[in-house]
Amino acid sequence: MKANSVGWFEIYVENMPRAKAFYENVFGKQLEPLKTPDSADDLEMYSFPGDMQTYGANGALVKMPGYPSGKNSVLVYFSCEDCAVEESRVESNGGKIEKNKFSIDQYGFISLVFDTEGNKFGLHSLK
Known about the structure:
The structure is a single chain. This protein has two helices and eight strands; from the N terminus they run βαββββαβββ. By secondary structure, the protein is of the alpha/beta class. It has one domain: 2,3-Dihydroxybiphenyl 1,2-Dioxygenase, domain 1. The strands form two sheets. The protein has a four-stranded mixed beta sheet with strand order 1-4-3-2, covered by helices on one side. α1 (16-27) runs antiparallel to α2. It is globular, with a radius of gyration of 15 Å.
């Protein structure tokens, strides 16, 4: 079976309750705690809902000492039915909009936004 290049993503955060609330409110979905090794008492992870056997990559919010948020150059795009809907929830939940929904021609539309931790991410939709 041919696989996509990305198999998992992690978004590093410094304030887990704030970040978790932001993503749950923007996407209207509950994040689930991930069991971490007993040796990693200071590691906290919450996964986005998904099925590892279906199309696309799943991922998690991660809080780990020594790995601050907002300082990387990888951009994750979340799939949406209409990215304007999720974009409309960003600022009211403490995030920032960098670029409102715009066309990327036959590939659909995207919005570029920041979460409460300073991480930039994208929203993508076909309409």
